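User: Predict the full complex structure for these chains.
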Amino acid sequence: MSSLQQNVKDHTPNNIALRAHNVVVDIPGRNAGDPFTATICSGQRWGVLGPNGVGKTTLLHTLAGLRAPRSGDVLLEDASVFQLNRRDVARHLALVFQERQDSFPATVLETALIGRHPFLSLWQRESASDYQIALNALEQLSLAPMRDRLVSTLSGGERQRVAIATALAQTPSIWLADEPTNHLDLHHQVAVMQLLEKQAAQGAAVFMCLHDLNLAARWCDHLLLMFPDGELRFGAAKEMLVPDLLERLYGQALAVGNINGTAVFVPR
Amino acid sequence: MSAALFLLCCAGVFALCLSVAVGSVPLSLTEVWAVLTGGGEPLHRDLVLSLRAPRALAAFATGALLSLAGALMQVLLRNPLADPYVLGLSGGAAVGALAAMLCGAGMMVVSGSASLGALVSTLLVFGLAQGVGGWTPTRLLLTGVVVAAGWSAVITFILTMSPADSLPGMLYWLMGDLSYARTPVMAWAVLIPALLITLPLGRSLNVLARGPLQAAALGVSVRPLEWTVYVMASVLTAVAVTTAGSVGFVGLIVPHMLRLVLGNDQRLILPASALAGGALLTFADTLARTIIAPEQLPVGVITALFGVPTFLYLLYRSR
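Assistant: Here is the predicted structure of the two-chain assembly.
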């Protein structure tokens, strides 16, 4: 992509990436919450905030088409993600899971390479360019030196970065990330947020669950607040980062500061 | 990768040659070659073509089927302890076979009845594991283990009820014995298409090993794939059991040995399992019928004798 094209994308993030239409997530044993209708455009960075168990992960899985909603639909290029072939969805949309399962040992590079799976046919093997994409992804998450280590020998934060590298190798135009900064140290939290910001600047849509209000305040342009009673509020980040709303969201009193024009929230 | 497969191929060919050459009348390789190319003495022809070769080929195919089924089950259930029999299939087949023997049926009917038993058990386990909200590997595993326990009670019951003269045949069937393998044709006719079907699935299975949600997010159609693997593993096991009774150990250990040495790429592990399992069982059967000839040892004794120390060594020095 030339820098001119990139510039254009920076300023006109109007390509619709994903549309949620009246989506009510299905959490067994819970009453239906507000339906979620929103358009997530390329270039946007959405943050989802809410207390534990409110359904953030379920919403993410529903948007990815992995879980049927109680009602409503999710559209990817005008087709329902629940109707589309899984492989076609995976070519556009990557999901970074909060929990991962490693039943069989695998190396860091092997793990990043599975991000290329949706692009390969049954008989195809990974090409040199697939390896290059996976290695670049590892490089971007400072994992290149440990490419041959077994994932099971890594720390929690390193595994989290492997998961993000796998999604990066998937070259998605839509990122759904479930607490992408989980287990990460401060430096890598910022590095991952910068990576996602860069992805958005290059035309991807980013939609992520976060627990850190300050990361959300600094890196998101849109926020979705999920209240325990099922109420949903969303809009531009500035409008959502109101102490009253956030205190009600978490049932926790907050102190608000201001550093270089960015609001900083600390629990009282 | 291809080097490993080539070595295993060589091991397989070597095991088959050895199995054909070794026995009460030892044959040299030139004599075996003469028979295979259409010449040789009549006694040698008889020995090789109607006794040793069919048995060696049946042993190879049975080992390959069981190892391939074991490797598939381990990925399907994402459990390293899974083997081809873990879901109760061999129990169902045994009940079918024993019931047929109790009625005094011939070998053909016994085989058919064993296949039917395997099918019933497979459907039973899969149906019962559905439960509310579909099956999960854990539920499938537990259902299989409990159904297997049920079958073993029925087997004990049949053994108790059977007249004494039919007991030896039943016990041999239960232990797994290749001298009962009449023809290797059926086993090979299933093995080769099964390999051709599983090979392109290797990469999807690699992804499935990361868990069903992750696999679905990476574009794998999880349910159809799991069904395919389940049906394949069941058919492979059923055919192996029908050919040679329930030969133990190979289906659990061979895939694990290979994983310890070759890593976890199913594209390599699946064909390698088939080759290594076939070679191992052929070799073990050769020893089983020669070591204390003219008596025969159960082949499972030999596989365990060689497999257990090898496996423990590999496990000990693994990362």
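Chain B has a mean pLDDT of 88.
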